[in-house]
Amino acid sequence: MTIPEAKTPADRTPIRIDGDESVLILPDAHIPYHDKAALELAVSFGKKLQPSVVLINGDFADNYSFSPHETDPSKRDMIGEIATVKQGLAWIQNEFRKARIIYKQGNHELWWDRKLWSKAPELVGLPSTTWEAQVKPDKNRIEFVHHLKAINIGTLLVLHGHEYRFAISNPVNPARGLFLRTKVTSLCSHFHQRSEHSERDGNGKLITTWSTGCLCQISPDYASRNNWSHGFAFVELHDKDFDVQNLRIIKGKVYS
Question: Beta 241-250 vs 231-238: how paired, if at all?
């Protein structure tokens, strides 16, 4: 008798960005519920910084039609939503022709997978049924990253924010909730709130965490009252050292 073989877990090898790189982080556009002015401003401001990497850090798509929450049937338009997301990705590719573009799967993109798992499990595994296959632009050079994979910009851990089984809480602000989960210098989107938190560990090492604002509509019908704010981030990496600019958008202008 021998011990049975274990199931092989999904590949969780982090995506690494090392060396001298500059990374524009575009969070939570939620197309077609994006804020067109905020998204255009983040991209135009980012272009001036000449990033070598553009990271779409989850929830670029809203996937309203696939929401696990109760939604208005009259507003569900799966084909139309996919078309607008493809248009948005193609636009970003055109705006950043020389940059490496990474698209991290957020919880809203994950809704697509979960709908297949529950309603059409026979289709799971077919290449044409993946979210990536639905929105892949022509002449695609976008790297799609599974939601289980973290992204490391040097020593900065970047998550979407939904990855923990028990959600990151924000008793004071989302950044503190992120700190309580990761215990390392890290950045996430997902909460649509710009915040920062710093603490020193027992050895005196400073740990800072950030949460970014969003690029979606601030008061959509499905969340008309909230504490959201517009924003995005820019990270400059030099070997192991990095600088985070957690940027705000207020009345059509970008502030640090």
Answer: antiparallel
- What is the four-CA torsion angle of 86, 88, 94, 95, rounded to 10 degrees? -160
Q: Count the helices and strands in the chain (H runs, E runs).
A: 5, 13
The strand pair at 206-211 and 195-200 is best described as antiparallel
Output the pTM of the full model.
0.93
pLDDT digits (tens, 9 = 90+) for 70-93: 777 778 888 999 999 999 999 999
**pLDDT on residue 144:** 94
DSSP H or E stretch at residue 135: helix 131-135
**Domains along the chain?**
16-65+75-255 (3.60.21.10)
Higher pLDDT: 170 or 249? It is 249
**DSSP summary character for residue 216:** B
Side chain identity at residue 166, one-letter code: F
Q: Cβ-count burial of 79 within 10 angstroms (0-12 exposed, 13-18 middle, 19+ buried)? A: exposed
Q: Which residues contact 253 (CB under 8 A, 6 or more apart)?
A: none
Q: Strand 53-57 and strand 20-26: pairing? A: parallel
Strands 195-200 vs 156-159: parallel, antiparallel or unpaired: unpaired
CA atoms within 13 A on the CB side of 166: 5
